[in-house]
Amino acid sequence: MKKTTPCLPLFLLVLAGMTILAGCRGQEQMPMAAPGPVEVDVHIVTTEPVNLSVELPGRTAAYRIAEVRPQVSGIVQKRLFTEGSEVQAGELLYQIDPATYQASLDSAKAALARAEAREHSARLKAERYRNLVRTKAVSEQDQIEMEAAWKEAEADVAAARAALDNARILLDFTEITAPITGRIGKSMVSEGALVTAQQTSALAVIQQLDPLFVDVNQSSTELLRLRREIAAGQPEGEDYPRSEVTVLLDDGSTHDQTGLLEFSDVTVNQSTGTVTLRAIVANPRQKLLPGMFVRARIAKGSLPDAVLIPAAAISRTNKGEAMVMVVDEQSLVATRMIEVGQSFGERTLITTGLNAGDRVIVAGLQKIRPGVPVTAAALTPPEPEQAAGATPVTPSATE
């Protein structure tokens, strides 16, 4: 009895191992359950009309600038304007002491009167000599000399009259007036200061602020494309593409007046490769001041059937090419290469690669790969946004 006792545990171990092996074989023979479709959110592509634009940084500049300088020398007696105020063309700004110029004018008047008296006497003598020469009372030579004296007296009168006009002009120059209408800055001189004619420093500067220029810089390459895009929406016969310009201020607000693209420089800056574009903008409230940093939104035209999708749906390949994941007709994931345009808000303009009705996956991208079956849930389309680069337009605006 004692010799058969060790065999029983060994038998039990063998029996347990066979049972476990049989169970494993049974599990290997059971088929694997197929995974279900992945749930993803999709954006159904639609088309809508949009107005395209481009934003460029720039600075404002005064429409006209006039530096006020004296044209005669003298002592400033009065300053007749308030610094920073609006002045009108012809308004008196400074008064220079006119005493010496008034004396010169009076002297010129007297010189003119003296010359006219001499001319009058010479003319009467010349007329008398014409009669005397007929009776041989005077010689012809005397008559010729008298005629010459009269002509010389006439020339003296003309010179005296010119000297009088010059003296009057110099006297008028003692009153320094505004050459243009605009906002005048601070005065560089005060009463009692000595000013000289043709001095290099200005007494004050006047700037016309309504309208105002907005100068922006654009690369020469982009300028050619911009001009083509603008010209595409212009009526035939326009010599230069004209486009509306909206001014965006540094604080994010928009200027209440739209401008017009007026000018493009004819020379490319060799150091930067840019060309200056100039727009003219109305500024009745003078909200804009010269030298302010602004952004100019230049309209480029419109697209009647633009494709806009959420920017979150766009990814990039290793080569930097844009792509999206779409759901095809068999509810399988497929890759679609696209070309993107301008962005506005949270959406991006797609130039090629998508058509109306395509289902673009916008959520659940981390759980899918090409060829995987999915269950698509359409997102509610967002309301059209107005943002930099493109502005949706209502259908009525395009009719």
Topology record:
Elements: H1 7-29, E1 38-44, E2 47-68, E3 74-79, E4 86-87, E5 92-96, H2 99-134, H3 140-173, E6 175-177, E7 182-184, E8 194-195, E9 204-219, H4 220-232, E10 244-248, E11 259-264, E12 274-281, E13 293-310, E14 315-316, E15 322-327, E16 333-337, E17 339-344, E18 347-352, E19 359-363, E20 374-378, E21 390-392, H5 395-398
Parallel strand pairs: 1-20
Antiparallel strand pairs: 1-19, 2-9, 2-13, 2-21, 3-5, 3-8, 4-7, 5-6, 7-9, 9-12, 10-11, 10-13, 11-12, 13-18, 14-15, 15-16, 15-19, 17-18
CATH class type of the domain at 211-302:
Mainly Beta
Uncertain regions spanning at least 5 consecutive residues: 384-399
Report the principal-axis shape: elongated
The CATH H-level homologous superfamily of the domain at 211-302: Efflux pump adaptor protein, beta barrel domain
Secondary-structure element order, as H and E? HEEEEEHHEEEEHEEEEEEEEEEEEH
Q: What is the CATH architecture annotation of the domain at 211-302?
A: Beta Barrel
Computed Rg = 45 Å
The fraction of residues in strands falls at 35-45%
- Total number of β-strand segments? 21
Give me the secondary-structure category. alpha+beta
Largest sheet: 6 strands, mixed
Distance N to C terminus: 110 Å
